[in-house]
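1st attempt posting a full record on here, be nice pls
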Amino acid sequence: MQNCSVRFRQPQWFVAEIFNFAAIIQVTWILTAFVVHGKRTGRWKQRPTPGISKFDAGCLYTAAVVAFACSYMRLVTDQVSFNLGYVSPDLGQCEISIDIGVCGYALTLNAVYAFLWLRQRSFYECPILSSIRRPWILCFSRGSVGLVTVGILCGGIGYTVPYNYTSDGEGCIAKPGRFIVWGIYVGNAVVVFGQTIMLFLFLYPLRFQLVKRNQNRIKKLLTRSALLAGLCILTDVIAMLIFVFAVPEDATRHITIALYEANMLVNLWSVLLTFECWPKILKSIFVGNSTKATKPSSPTSHPMAVVTTT
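the predicted structure (as tokens):
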């Protein structure tokens, strides 16, 4: 039997619902703006040429769109999870809904860090940074995104494989001691290690004195990207620590789900803000955009082609 009136007396239900609706509105707005701006500026019509890298040809922009699109899987199933768990006896809906939400969160995080990896690679592809490219940088770069992907997969298994969730008539709750704790801890440790390497590779070029033109602009873009990558890492760690040490094990999942939604939303906003033209992207669904996609004639004529067009 379902007790619908219980949720309306729960402050955590109202907080979770309001935050979820706000997150859905934001993601819908930004995703729509990305698509509109991308079509107007020809992001998906460009092709790699001697003057434009494959990242500039739409790969980086597409990765950002994919990250926002993946977040819907999490946000929609969270809305379902907030309104389950009021049924007695438990019929397994909480387990299914939350597991799908965990998968959506994992896909979104993987998409975010794939984007950050592409963003990082785009800087090293620029001719102006060619003097500091080394084989070990390519190895570390690939290793960082590989570690993050594997770590997120291990953590996801720890959260979803056992039968972790049930209902108590007041919402979905976690079953005590059912998580694969070692898998979650190992997964999180691997993710943090990969994130640290990725952040290091964002910061590494800043220690060199660039002598070519546009150096100040490039340093600003590198610094901004490094700060936003650091913000993604910081919020991931904070969300993990709060979940592990601060949330009572017998609490309903409303607040913990909303916590990870907030973490995911910070990651998505960080993706948007790495773009130099982010204000134009946000306004593109409200105003016309006469900006045309441009193709530099050669790498030397546009040393930051991969950044300036995004």
